[in-house]
Specification:
461 residues; alpha/beta; six-stranded parallel beta sheet; five-stranded mixed barrel; 16 helices; 19 strands; binds S-adenosylmethionine; binds iron/sulfur cluster
């Protein structure tokens, strides 16, 4: 009998790539491919790439160089290995990848990976296959359902893409070019996928999209649904105890979504709402379509609906034309909001985007200095936010083994990592945990008495 074939998918960049990587593996399962964490054992290595920041393309070529060595070793053992490049760099570079790296067998764009089995069959016959069209058919409708065993291995928290692409065209961003126009999946398709994940043990689902709150997929009644409505529907799926969504745009924070935060126990009190800058001048140059006041108003509406809501954000420093005063406006916005955490980046000119051609590019050293100041402010806020949990008892979804033997790690409702001594049988349970210590990246806690009795008994511990 021939040995089962193995696929190794290496994911770079955002959560949508993690989701796509899982779905690529699911697509290949009916063709006999099993996932492996070891690229050297694989018959097929897929690099699922990201194009969002600098040197993305060069990083992909150096990664291809590393996989090439494994392919040579495999060939020496008489075992052919194929290399595929997928994701946003594949979408942007297309056939150029095969021209520069002849060792690559196929290049598949972000909207085409449902065709992987057919592309692999062609590549196996020696063809160099490139497929980066934006197809008319819906990739999601073509994909096989998530595989039960693979889902179990991937854990109790899962991403589900509900919306893809972007029509906003922020002047710094490649997403509208690499992921294409905004498209939402129908509600019924999403519900079926979430039910399937729930059956395989998933307890928490994070709905993802480049602009997730612009979601407008067809509802089960044939009428377009908002994200708020979709969340209300998914809150009724048995065994799905926690819902999250990311990434939102401030302009699409409608009243329906805001009120869902006040109504749904399953909707976790943590929202990632990128602002990019606190200066109206810079926001206009970025084509963000919202002002500082508009952003603060969205935050205030959300807090009014759910007072304990925690926020994170994305920031770009050193956008072309950003002055010291503009940057200080960003620092005061951080003070005004009070974030639980945030990501911050130096502006990186992306070829083909309007901002790359703008006057007033900020010197690298200045960008680095501003980034340091912003990150110091964010770190202070994150520490203060976490310190407020000392001695409190939280619901923690226990996800996997922690750093120490006998420990499990899970997430609080506010997305903090929580390490707790707990039997492995509690994996997948939501336990009551009392916070005993605040670390720099996670909280430490002990199972509270409220957990001990019924849950430990149910888990057979
Ligand atoms: N759609 C989301 C939004 O509107 O905020 C996020 C999309 S992007 C994948 C994630 C983050 O990468 C952005 O929020 C932005 O902060 C950062 N980013 C995108 N393009 C960038 C660039 N050219 N330079 C630096 N950071 C960038
Ligand atoms: Fe990029 Fe702006 Fe669209 Fe976000 S909203 S994906 S930053 S263009």
């Amino acid at each position: 009998m021939s040995r089962p074939r193995k696929v190794h998918v290496k994911s770079f960049g955002c959560q949508m790539n993690v989701y796509d990587s899982h779905r690529m593996a699911d697509t290949l399962a009916p063709a006999g491919y099993r996932e492996t964490a070891q690229p050297e054992d694989a018959d097929l290595v897929i690099l699922n790439t990201c194009h969002i920041r600098e040197k993305a393309v060069e990083k992909v070529y150096s990664e291809i160089g590393r996989i090439r060595a494994l392919k040579d070793q495999a060939a020496a053992q008489g075992r052919p290995m194929m290399i595929a490049v997928a994701g946003c760099v594949a979408q942007a570079e297309g056939r150029e990848i095969i021209r520069r790296a002849g060792v690559v067998d196929l290049v598949v764009g972000s909207q085409n990976y449902h065709r992987l089995p057919e592309m692999l069959a062609r590549a196996a016959k020696g063809e160099k296959v490139v497929d980066t069209d934006f197809p008319v058919e819906d990739k999601f409708a073509q994909l096989p359902a998530p595989q039960r065993e693979a889902t179990r291995r991937r854990g109790v928290s899962s991403f589900v893409t509900v919306q893809e692409g972007c029509d906003k065209f922020c002047t710094f961003c490649v997403v509208p070019y690499t992921r294409g126009a905004e498209v939402s999946r129908p509600v019924a398709q999403i519900v079926a996928e979430v039910e399937r994940l729930a059956e395989a043990g998933v307890r928490e689902v994070t709905l993802i999209g480049q602009n997730v709150n612009a979601y407008h997929g067809e509802g089960e009644d044939g009428v377009p649904s908002s994200l708020g409505k979709l969340l209300r529907r998914l809150a009724r799926v048995p065994s799905i105890d926690r819902l999250r969504y990311t990434t939102s745009h401030p302009c699409d924070m409608d009243d329906d979504l805001v009120s869902a935060h006040g109504e749904l126990d399953a909707l976790m009190p943590y929202v990632h709402l990128p602002v990019q800058s606190g200066s109206d001048r810079v926001l206009a140059a970025m084509n963000r379509k919202h002002t500082r006041a508009g952003y603060l108003e969205a935050i205030a509406r959300l807090r009014a609906a759910r007072p304990d809501l925690a926020f994170s954000s994305d920031f770009i420093v050193g956008f072309p034309g950003e002055t010291e005063q503009d940057f200080r406006d960003t620092l005061t916005l951080v003070d005004d909001v009070g974030y639980a955490s945030a990501f911050s980046f130096m502006y990186s000119p992306r070829p083909g985007t309007p901002a790359a051609e703008m006057d007033g590019q900020v010197p690298q050293q200045e960008k680095a200095e501003r980034l340091q100041r912003l990150q110091a402010a964010i770190t202070r806020q994150q520490r203060a936010f976490n310190a407020g949990f000392a001695g409190r008892t939280l619901d923690v979804l226990l996800e996997k083994p922690g750093k120490l033997p006998g420990q499990l790690v899970g997430r609080s409702p506010y997305l903090q990592a929580v390490q707790v001594m707990a039997p492995a049988s509690l994996t997948g349970e939501i336990a009551r945990v009392t916070v005993t210590e605040i670390g720099s990246n996670s909280l430490f806690g002990a199972l509270s008495d409220e957990t001990d009795a019924p849950q430990l008994a149910a888990a057979g511990a």
